[in-house]
Amino acid sequence: MQGWKVLTRSRCIAVLGIAFAMGCAAAETFSDCAEVPHGDHPKILLTNGKLNALVFLPDARNGYYRSTRFDWSGVVGCVSLNGHTFFGEWFAQYDPLKNDSITGPVEEFRSDDVPMGYNAQRPGELSVRPGAIGYTEARPGETFLKPGVGVLGKVNDSPYQFGGAYPIIDAGKWTVKVQKRSVRFRQVLHGPDGYAYVYEKTLMLNKNEPVMTLRHSLKNTGKKAIETYVYDHDFFMLDGKPTGPGMVVHFTFEPRPVGEIGAAAKIEGKDLVYVDALAPRKGVAGYLTGYSDDIRDFDFTVEDTRSKVGVQQTSDHPLARLYFWSIQTTICPEGYIRLNVAPGETSRWTLRYRFFAPRS
Fold first, then answer.
1. Please, what's the b/e burial string for 295-313 (b: 16 or more CB within 10 A of its CB; e: otherwise)?
2. Angle (CA) 134 126 335, round 5°
């Protein structure tokens, strides 16, 4: 695909909600990520000479994503290498207020309404109901917390629904600093009921490597502990090809499905291999076990073995949980990290994405 001509040597500070200013200079380049669907939102294009990455910026009025499930920072619309692309719109209809209208390796912070364990009535199934910080304790009309989004309002007594619509009471204050190879996001939130934090994420393209690194910190400036899990949904799309035979997910351990994951894939040693094309609205999904608390087990690679295009994801934290989800348009290994941030303390974690592709 021929890219649109864009300026890529940019250094700026964007304060969203107050101003969006960008000073650009020097070289111009062509990029396969310059044009993306619904690209008329605040965004920047990063490059390290090998990788190009288009990143949408958080903006309460005009942002690409303004819903309540996923972290607003680090929404990657496209990464390209050697003429190949790795992310895109995997969903059928775009709506910035819809929970799943989002692209790239986006984070979600979750807690458990039901403790981690096994369902005695249906052996082999994990008994986990996704929750949000403070949701169970809150009464209708009160608030709960989603880091990366803000303070949300509880609307009724129903269990938390990650795909549900909740009013945003306070999105905090976002600031963004952009350089040629990186963008740093900072959200400061002074929430009610003792919750407050400073959340930072730096998305960086490593110098002279086809690697994108996400560095995070969460400082608890409130009076209550912040106990949560965080994972990246990933939403990998390898050149936009449909999920099916030829697609493989490599693990460093032998994954064991907890229950059925779908007939279109099977486990072969340390690989999850697709043996059939996925039908619309029918995928391969489920919890996986078999990993240890060794950091080296947080290592999975999604590859199209026909084109030799793929991406490897690693972390500096061990896996606390592993869910796998894929449909016809995207493949998503979801590695969870557990955080317990006491008041006054800061937690830090890093994710690393190594992209590989032959030259077109």
1. eebbbbbbbbeeeebbbbb
2. 70
Q: What are the DSSP E strand ranges found in 233-345? A: 247-251, 256-257, 265-268, 271-274, 284-289, 299-304, 309-315, 321-327, 330-341
Burial of 269 (0-12, 13-18, 19+ CB in 10 A): exposed
Residue 78 φ then ψ, to 5°: -165, 140
Low-confidence ranges of the chain (pLDDT < 50): 1-29, 115-125
Burial of residue 68 (CB within 10 Å: 0-12, 13-18, 19+) is buried
pTM, to two decimals? 0.89
220's enclosing H/E stretch is: strand 211-220
Residue 225 CA to residue 343 CA, distance in Å, equals 6
Between vectors from CA 191 to CA 188 and to CA 197, what angle results, nearest 5°? 40
CB within 8 Å of 311: residues ≥ 6 apart: 86, 236, 238, 301, 302, 353, 354, 355, 356
Q: Of 43, 105, 32, 122, give the one whose Cα is nearest residue 330.
A: 105
Cα dist from 241 to 294, 303, 328, 330, 359, whole Å: 33, 11, 9, 9, 17
CA distance 195 to 180: 34
CA distance 219 to 205: 24
For residue 214, the surrounding DSSP H or E stretch is strand 211-220
d(CA 13, CA 55): 15
Q: What is the pLDDT of residues 241-292, one digit of tens each?
A: 999 999 999 999 999 999 999 999 999 999 999 999 998 878 999 999 999 9
Q: Determine the Cα–Cα distance for residues 286 and 283; give it in Å rounded to an integer.
A: 10
Structure tokens belonging to residue 349: 């974690």
Residue 123's pLDDT is 38
